[in-house]
Amino acid sequence: MTVLPTRVDPAGPEYAEHRAAMLAKLADLDAEHAKALAGGGPKYLERHRKRGKLPARERIELLVDQDSPFLELSPLAAWGSDHPVGAALVTGIGVIEGVECVITANDPTVRGGASNPWTLRKALRANEVALRNRLPLVNLVESGGADLPSQKEIFIPGGALFRDLTRLSAAGIPTVAVVFGNSTAGGAYVPGMSDHTVLVKERAKVFLGGPPLVKMATGEEADDESLGGAEMHARTSGLADHVATDEADALRIARRIVARLDHRKPGPDPDPLAEPPKHDEEELLGIVPGDLKVPFDPREVIARIVDGSDFDEFKPLYGTSLATGWARLHGYPVGILANAQGVLFSQESQKAAQFIQLANQRNTPLLFLHNTTGYMVGKDYEQGGIIKHGAMMINAVANSTVPHLSVLMGASYGAGHYGMCGRAFEPRFLFAWPSAKSAVMGPQQLAGVLSIVARQSAAAKGQPYDEDADAAIRAMVEQQIEAESLPVFLSGRLYDDGVIDPRDTRTVLGLCLSAIHNAPVEGARGYGVFRL
Question: Mind listing the pLDDT tens digit for each residue in 135-145?
Answer without folding.
Answer: 999 999 999 77
